[in-house]
Specification:
With 268 residues, the protein is α/β, with parallel strands linked by helices. It is built from seven helices and twelve strands. It has helices spanning 2-12, 59-63, 66-75, 102-117, 134-145, 201-212, 254-265; strands spanning 25-26, 33-37, 46-52, 78-82, 122-132, 152-156, 174-180, 192-193, 196-197, 218-220, 227-231, 241-246. A hairpin with a 6-residue loop joins β10 (218-220) and β11 (227-231). α3 (66-75) packs parallel to α7 (254-265). The termini are far apart.
Length: 268
C-alpha cells in the first residue's frame, strides 16, 4: 500500500512548468523570467554561460540569435538568456536608479541558477557570466558582487556606471573584458548620459587588478583583435585578468566571446 500511495503522489505532484528557448521560465518568488537552451548532444553535468542582453533587449531576442545557440553547441554548455527588469538592469548609479540597486540583480541571478539546476544537470563549477553593452555593465556588476558564484566573467563593451567602485565585496574572479577601440556608444573612457556617466573601462580594469592582487598587466596577442593586456599570477586563486581590444565599434562577436570562455575554462 505504501508503494501505491507513493506512486499516486508522484503522479499528482506539480511539475515545474515547461519552458526553454521558446518559452519564458519564471523565477520562483518573483516576476522575473529567463530562457534556456540545452545542446542535444551533451550528457551528464553541463556547464552554462549566462548571457545578459543590452539596453531594451530581452531573453527572447537573445535566444533568437542563432550564433549564440551554435556557440553553446560547440562549447557543450547550456545557454541561459537572462531578462532585465523592464528596459534595463538594476545597477548602481544608472539613470533614474538609486544606489545599491544591484542587490536585486544578485538575488535574481542566484534564483535563476537554482531554477536552472532544478531543470538540468548543472555543473556549478563551470558557470560563466557574459553580456554585451548594458549587459556588459551587468557582467561587471556580477563580477564585483558574485565573484565566487561563477568560474569567470566575459563583459563585452560595457562596465560600471561612474563612479567605478574602489573595490569589490566578493572574492576576485577570472575576467576577460572585450571592447572595440572605435566604440562611440560605450567608449573605453565612458561618456555622459543625462546626469550620469558611463565608467571608464581602464579604471575598472585597474581596480579589478588591484582587487585581485595581480601584478601589473603585460601586453599579449589577441587572435580576434589588436591585442590584450593580461595580468596573471600563477600563485593566485584566479586564472587571471585580460582586457582585449579590437579595431571596430560597438559590435558583438560570438567568436570573441567563445574564445574568452575557452580561455577561462582552460585557466588562461
Amino acid at each position: 500500500m505504501r508503494h501505491v500511495l507513493a506512486a499516486l503522489l508522484a503522479l499528482t505532484a506539480t511539475p515545474a512548468p515547461a519552458c526553454g528557448p521558446d518559452t519564458d521560465c519564471s523565477v520562483p518568488g518573483g516576476d522575473r523570467t529567463y530562457r534556456y537552451y540545452m545542446p542535444e548532444s551533451v550528457e551528464g553535468p553541463v556547464g552554462a554561460f549566462f548571457h545578459a542582453h543590452g539596453y531594451r533587449g530581452s531573453a527572447n531576442g537573445a535566444m533568437r540569435n542563432a550564433a549564440l545557440r551554435e556557440m553553446a553547441d560547440r562549447l557543450g554548455m547550456a545557454f541561459i538568456a537572462m531578462n532585465a527588469d523592464a528596459d534595463d538592469w538594476n545597477l548602481a548609479h544608472r539613470p533614474r536608479e538609486p544606489d545599491q540597486a544591484e542587490a536585486r540583480e544578485y538575488e535574481y541571478v542566484a534564483a535563476v541558477i537554482d531554477d536552472v539546476a532544478g531543470r538540468i544537470d548543472l555543473d556549478r563549477e563551470r558557470l560563466i557570466a557574459t553580456g554585451f553593452s548594458a549587459g556588459g555593465m551587468m557582467t561587471w556588476t556580477l563580477a564585483c558582487g558574485m565573484g565566487e558564484t561563477f568560474a569567470g566573467f566575459v563583459p563585452y563593451a560595457g562596465t560600471f556606471w561612474a563612479p567605478v567602485p574602489e573595490s569589490c565585496p566578493s572574492p576576485p574572479a577570472t575576467l576577460i573584458h572585450i571592447h572595440g577601440l572605435q566604440d562611440t556608444t560605450v567608449p573605453l573612457e565612458g561618456r555622459p548620459i543625462g546626469q550620469t556617466r558611463q565608467g571608464s573601462v581602464i579604471e575598472a580594469f585597474r581596480m579589478y587588478v588591484a582587487h585581485s592582487g595581480m601584478p601589473d598587466p603585460t601586453q599579449t596577442g589577441f587572435p580576434h583583435g589588436e591585442g590584450c593586456l593580461v595580468s596573471m599570477d600563477p600563485g593566485a586563486s584566479t586564472g587571471g585578468l585580460a582586457l582585449c581590444v579590437f579595431d571596430g565599434g560597438h559590435s558583438y562577436s560570438t567568436t570573441r566571446v567563445e574564445w574568452a570562455i575557452e580561455q577561462i575554462l582552460e585557466g588562461l
